[in-house]
C-alpha cells in the first residue's frame, strides 16, 4: 500500500456516488433535456443545410460586410467559405457552427447575469472565483465523463462540456466591465433619480459592452477549441474527421479538417469583434 493511502479522503468515491444518484433519480429529466437540446441543434443545422451552399455563402459574405464594412475581411470570408466547400467539409462546418452558436448563447444567457451579480456582490464573486478557476483548469476529459454518463452519446454531452469550459470568460469579463464603470457616471445617474435597474440598463451595461463583447468573442474561441473533444463523445462537426484522421494516422485528412476549423475560428472572431471607433464613425457617415 502506498504512503498515506490508508488515510486517503474519499473524494472520488463521493463524486461517483453523486453522479450515480443523479443518474438514478434524474434520468427522466436528463433524457428530456438531452432530447430538447439535440432537437434544437439538429433543427438549426437542418435549417442551414436547407439552403444551397452558394446561397448561404453569399448571405454570410453580405452579413460580414454589413457588420464590419471591410472589403478585405469580406473577400476573405468569401474565399474561406468557398475553400471549405471545395474541400468537402460544408456540412461538418455548419454542424460545428450550430454547436458553437448554442454553446455561446447558453454561456451568455447564464454568464452575463452571473457577471453582473458578481460585480455588485464582491462576496459572491469571492465564492465564485475558485469554481471558475476549477472549471478552466481541470482537464476537459474529467467532466466529460459525468456528462457522458448523464446524457449519453451525442451532441449534448459535448455541448454541456463546452459550456462548462467556456462560461468563465463571459462571467469574468462582464464582472470586469461592470466594475470598471466610473463612479462619476453612477453618481450622476443617482443624482437624476435613476433606480438600480435603470443604472444597470442605461449606464453600467452600455459602458461595459466592449468588455462583454470581448467575453462573447473569447467564449466563441473556447467553444471552437472543444470541437475535437466533443467529437469523441459522438458530436457531429469538424471534430469528427480530425478524430478519424487521428485513428487512421491520415495526415492529409487531419490537415484539411484542421484548416477548416482554423478558417471558421478566424471568421467568427473577426465578424463578432466590435468595429473600431473610427470604423463605426466612417460607417455612420460625417
Task: Please give a quick description of this structure.
The protein contains 15 helices and no strands. The chain is mostly helical. Helix 2 crosses helix 5 and helix 4 runs antiparallel to helix 14.
Q: Radius of gyration, rounded? A: 22 Å
Structural class estimated from helices and strands:
mainly alpha
Give the N-terminus to C-terminus distance in angstroms.
78 Å
Poorly predicted ranges (pLDDT <50, ≥5 residues)?
A: 279-286
Mean pLDDT: 82
**Helix fraction by DSSP (H/I, runs of at least 4):** over 70%
Number of helices: 15
Order of helices and strands, N to C?
Answer: HHHHHHHHHHHHHHH
Number of strands: 0
Shape: globular
Model description:
With 286 residues, the protein is mainly alpha-helical. The chain has 15 helices and no strands. The chain has helices spanning 11-25, 27-50, 53-68, 71-87, 90-120, 122-137, 140-151, 155-166, 168-179, 183-191, 196-225, 227-231, 239-248, 251-272, 277-284. The radius of gyration is 22 Å and the shape is globular. The termini are far apart.
Amino acid at each position: 500500500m502506498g504512503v498515506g493511502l490508508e488515510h486517503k479522503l474519499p473524494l472520488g468515491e463521493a463524486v461517483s456516488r453523486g453522479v450515480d444518484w443523479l443518474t438514478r433519480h434524474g434520468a427522466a429529466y436528463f433524457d428530456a433535456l438531452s432530447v430538447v437540446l439535440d432537437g434544437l441543434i439538429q433543427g438549426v443545422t437542418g435549417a442551414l443545410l436547407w439552403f444551397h451552399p452558394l446561397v448561404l455563402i453569399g448571405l454570410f459574405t453580405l452579413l460580414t460586410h454589413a457588420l464590419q464594412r471591410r472589403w478585405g475581411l469580406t473577400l476573405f470570408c468569401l474565399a474561406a467559405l468557398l475553400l471549405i466547400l471545395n474541400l468537402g467539409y460544408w456540412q461538418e462546418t455548419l454542424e460545428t457552427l450550430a454547436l458553437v452558436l448554442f454553446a455561446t448563447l447558453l454561456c451568455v444567457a447564464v454568464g452575463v447575469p452571473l457577471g453582473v451579480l458578481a460585480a455588485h456582490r464582491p462576496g459572491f464573486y469571492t465564492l465564485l472565483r475558485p469554481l471558475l478557476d476549477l472549471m478552466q483548469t481541470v482537464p476537459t476529459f474529467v467532466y466529460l465523463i459525468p456528462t457522458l454518463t448523464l446524457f449519453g452519446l451525442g451532441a449534448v454531452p459535448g455541448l454541456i462540456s463546452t459550456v462548462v469550459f467556456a462560461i468563465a470568460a463571459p462571467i469574468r469579463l462582464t464582472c470586469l466591465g461592470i466594475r470598471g464603470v466610473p463612479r462619476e457616471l453612477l453618481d450622476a445617474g443617482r443624482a437624476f433619480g435613476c433606480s438600480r435597474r435603470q443604472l444597470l440598463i442605461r449606464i453600467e451595461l452600455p459602458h461595459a459592452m466592449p468588455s462583454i463583447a470581448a467575453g462573447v468573442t473569447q467564449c466563441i474561441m473556447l467553444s471552437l477549441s472543444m470541437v475535437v473533444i466533443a467529437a469523441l463523445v459522438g458530436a457531429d462537426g469538424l471534430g469528427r474527421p480530425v478524430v478519424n484522421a487521428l485513428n487512421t494516422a491520415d495526415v492529409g485528412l487531419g490537415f484539411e479538417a484542421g484548416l477548416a476549423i482554423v478558417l471558421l475560428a478566424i471568421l467568427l472572431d473577426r465578424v463578432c469583434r466590435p468595429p473600431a471607433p473610427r470604423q463605426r464613425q466612417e460607417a455612420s457617415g460625417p
